[in-house]
């Protein structure tokens, strides 16, 4: 669930994570005919494959890389949407390969694709890491996993070696030899250590009762390799690979020399079941959650940038998630617990939004306070109370929470603070420093999660727009402004407005305008417009058109163009959101799924990719 499904899992000629030599064995067994081929997982790069084939009794191995946009290609070849399509293409046209693919070398019966180093355990590892690092349970845990799986996977991947029994930390070369020579000295006994001088690493390996030391180099992009060897994203993958193949070492890695200083629970014979390609190959079960010892939230990235995950902020969970604080939870707050700053965060028809601090039992929290204009009319007051009643029922990391209301010098709605301000303004102001496409996908995925929650709770927002998506920071968005929102009755699928009000027509689906019918499906239409705004870096939708012009534009079957540099997949999703008939429009549960898949597919690749790196200048104050 947290990780991506293997795009080749269903292919009968896919062997999963096997070594080159094994692939050659299978091809030999199947007869070595010209064009005989199989597919296996690439051990070096996450998400890549290798095409192994035969021509003129020789073996050929072609790496298939997953590209930034989620397509697959052999270096120098055409891109294809999946490994299956790629194989189909090369069965018709050799296009540079030794020959065309003619006969799939299917797995013998009883042979299943070999799980990869990461596959087996990734989901459980992510879950345990999130649970233990941020102390989350229940929905908060699930939401964190769904929204942050790629980031957490990367964190784990870059630090996982520290939890491996073969990792001995910062010990000297002499100490490494002492440890390797103590006890039995089988060929392939090894350990990995950090080298004091420069934070680099070394591999120490026994062969013929002698210890050999290899330097581990790190290239400019951060990839690890032994000199002249294959490059890997992580040390963990490097070690797993060298267990299969010496790759220039005098012998392959075989026996772990366990670090005597590892915490007790890690000292079981196989500290992380399912890791590696041992024949036993057990998988990590959720009944064994203690495999990770508690860790500090690790904010430093491989690239040296620091980045706050939503779970690191104070607004990920409700301030009332603490049972102590929950005791005091009431709709109406005491005025003397509220300090109001003069600083204005924003303004609207109702009045203005001010910064403030709210004193709770154990802590003080930053809040945003929507203050009603002093000429308190009853209807305006009622409206704000309605907004408060709606927000009171919502609790999700991707929705601005209400702390309560306060009736004093005027009626005030007290909310958690999203200091980054509205998404459209943020993106427009950061045009020159360039916020990456994957950053926008990440934020829009969070919005879809918040909207999916609303849909499940049977609420319609009715004012979803980039101006009402507020940022906590550059990587954390929350939906706000429930001024027009409605709770649907248990049996209703839509809300019928009696009269048209001051409506944001450019964000409204046809059925809203024509029949005053509002549902989660009409929120999906608005979500599409919000996506368009985000990928246009905060531009106004439908240029200079007036509301009524937009309506006839839509009626003619026209839709806004794809924003510059917006990925085709994301524009395709916008177009789905703009399906004319609401019955045929996807709901938020599918929208969230679609954007999640796309987000995962780019998030595992992009962070170090050219032109896509996060721009460290583009951070919020
Ligand atoms: P309106 O109904 O007038 O659109 P909003 O609820 O959208 O009112 O708030 C208006 C502005 O106030 C927002 O655009 C934003 O700048 C600021 N604001 C509102 N809520 C918050 C919040 N929770 N944290 C920070 N700023 C906020
Ligand atoms: Mg607003």
Structure description:
Keywords: ATP-binding, Cell membrane, Cytoplasm, Immunity, Kinase, Membrane, Nucleotide-binding, Repeat, SH2 domain, Transferase, Tyrosine-protein kinase. It is an enzyme of class 2 (transferase). One of its GO terms (biological process) is immune system process. The chain is of the alpha+beta class and 621 residues long. It folds into 4 domains: 96 residues, SHC Adaptor Protein (2-Layer Sandwich), CATH 3.30.505.10; 96 residues, SH2 domain (SHC Adaptor Protein); 102 residues, 2-Layer Sandwich (Phosphorylase Kinase, domain 1), CATH 3.30.200; 202 residues, Transferase(Phosphotransferase), domain 1 (Orthogonal Bundle), CATH 1.10.510.10. Helices cover 29% and strands 18% of the residues. It has 15 helices and 22 strands. The protein has a 5-stranded mixed β-sheet with strand order 4-3-2-1-5, with helices on one face. A 5-stranded mixed β-sheet has the order 9-8-7-6-10. The protein has a 5-stranded antiparallel β-sheet with strand order 11-12-13-15-14. Strand 6 and strand 7 form a beta hairpin. The longest helix has 22 residues. The protein is globular and about 90 Å long. The C terminus is likely disordered. Adenosine-5'-diphosphate binds next to strand 11 and strand 16.
